[in-house]
Specification:
Bound molecules: zinc ion
CATH architecture of the largest domain: Alpha-Beta Barrel
Strand order of the largest sheet: 3-2-1-4-12-13-14
Helix content: 25-40%
Number of helices: 16
Number of strands: 14
Strand content: 15-25%
CATH topology of the largest domain: TIM Barrel
Order of helices and strands: HEEEEEHHEHEHHEHEHEHEHHHHHHHEEE
CATH superfamily of the largest domain: Metal-dependent hydrolases
Largest sheet: 7 strands, mixed
């Protein structure tokens, strides 16, 4: 395509027909049909000079390292600050100076709901916003999550199709956000935690819960339908939940047979399967059915932990929302959820500190733990507080950092491309001026964010 502005005298020719003709032959003055999306890796090579590098959380840090990046992936990591001239590369070589920073893999949150934000407006939003509104809303939350240092998230329960459109737009570089693994609608029994509640009958009939199923055969169908809609992972509401407007407790809701049919079908289709589960019986039933992950696990006890260890399943505890909502009945009654309907409030008040004590026990007993926040219950963009919760529950700072990197990647089945900085993996990188190994609160102050080789934040410029 010719780029000489004056080659056909466009500036002096005002005729629409002439302009259309010029566009058609590709010589128009400003039309650039080949412009790439906004957020794609730059061409050429990038070298990051990392002052302190934690390439693989769980292993030791290295001082003065160079991370070489091409096409959004890590090519190699070399000792010392390698100058641009010493890298053999086609195209431009640029150097990013993080010599004063603590550099580590971008974080992974295994449990978010990008399509909304809990609170008193949620119920009305659900009937006022259509899928296009939801998608734009979710794009805002996705950006906030990325700017908090999370380069991958797993969205476990966003209704309809907008989350898949957002996932694909982010992947294509059209929208700023973390990479998304999405379940779409959760698989739920009729009237279960993932169904729609709290509206008059005619409204309920108009609001589909796409993942509803009853009986093993029907639940096999529901899993297949979720994969057909685009699900990367299967999310199941195995027990009741706190924030559904129904006075049915938090006990087991799917039968053992249904859970087994769901887990087997998900695995047959190459998907991980995870269960929202609060009550001990429901958690244990999902573990016995072969679930890969359990979300929340609020009422898991010592016996439950032993089954976790037998099956090797990962627990995704979601503790920060408890702090955000209030971890005593008094704080809950004053907190952001104080106006929620009575059936929800009754369940909320039973929680108290239980989820925090549960994580401390799980950690003490050596259960596999990976990071998840349930953001939407807590505000999007505050996800990194979960690292702090795990340290408060008894983990070392390093153990906590592992939950949101190597552990989360393994739990989600994406260790081949995320969770650590090694050749062949995605260039998903965050940096902080203070070391989170010295003080875990450093995770709240991220200075540098790269996802798939694109820099979304570097100091003041973003
Ligand atoms: Zn959730």
């Amino acid at each position: 395509m010719l780029r000489n502005k004056h080659s056909f005298g466009v500036g002096t020719c005002g005729g629409l027909l002439m302009a259309a003709w010029l566009l058609a032959i590709g010589n128009a003055r400003s039309a650039d049909y080949n412009k790439p999306p906004e957020f794609v890796p730059p061409t050429g090579t990038t070298i990051i000079h990392a002052g302190t590098l934690l390439a693989v959380p769980g292993q030791s840090t290295q001082q003065a390292q160079s991370v070489v990046i091409r096409d959004g992936k890590i090519v190699e990591i070399r000792s010392g600050y390698v100058p641009a001239a010493s890298v053999s590369a086609v195209g431009e070589v640029r150097v990013i100076d993080l010599r004063e920073q603590f550099v580590m893999p971008g974080w992974i949150d295994l449990h978010v709901h990008l399509s909304g934000q809990s609170g008193s407006a949620r119920k009305l939003n659900f009937v006022e916003m259509d899928q296009a509104d939801v998608a734009l809303h979710a794009a805002m939350y996705a950006r906030r999550t990325l700017m908090a240092g999370f380069t991958t998230v797993r969205d476990l329960g966003s209704r309809g199709y907008s989350i898949f459109a957002l996932r694909d737009a982010i992947k294509a570089g059209k929208v700023a956000g973390p990479k998304i693994l999405s379940s779409g609608d959760a698989i739920t029994p009729t009237g279960g935690h993932g169904d729609v509640h709290g509206y008059r009958r005619e409204v309920l009939q108009a609001l589909p819960a796409l993942g509803t199923c009853n009986g093993p055969d029907d639940c096999r169908r529901a899993v297949r339908a979720a994969v057909k809609r685009g699900a990367d992972v299967i999310k199941v509401t195995a027990t009741g939940g706190v924030l559904s407007e129904t006075a049915t407790g938090t006990g087991q809701q799917f039968t053992d047979e249904e859970l087994k049919a769901i887990a087997d079908t998900a695995h047959d289709l190459g998907r991980k399967v995870t269960a929202h589960a609060h009550a001990k019986q429901g958690i244990e039933a999902a573990l016995r059915a072969g679930f890969d992950n359990i979300e929340h696990a609020m009422w898991a006890d010592e016996g439950t932990m032993k089954i976790f260890k037998q099956t090797g399943a990962w627990m995704v505890p979601t503790v920060y929302p408890i702090t955000a909502v209030g971890d005593t009945p008094e704080k809950m009654k004053q907190g952001p959820f104080k106006d929620l309907p009575p059936p929800i409030m009754a369940k909320l008040l039973q929680l108290g500190r239980q989820p925090k004590d549960m994580v401390a026990l799980a950690h003490k007993m050596g259960v596999n733990i990976a990071l998840g926040t349930d953001s939407a219950v807590s505000p999007h963009g505050e996800n990194a507080n979960e690292f702090i919760e795990y340290v408060n529950a008894g983990m070392t700072n390093m153990e906590s950092l592992m939950t949101g990197t190597v552990n989360a990647a393994e739990a989600a089945g994406i260790s081949d491309r995320a969770g650590s900085l090694e050749p062949g993996k995605a260039a998903d990188i965050v940096a902080m001026s203070a070391s989170p190994l010295d003080s875990i609160e450093a995770v709240l102050d991220v200075d540098f964010i790269m996802r798939d080789g694109f820099v979304f934040k570097h100091g003041a410029e973003q």
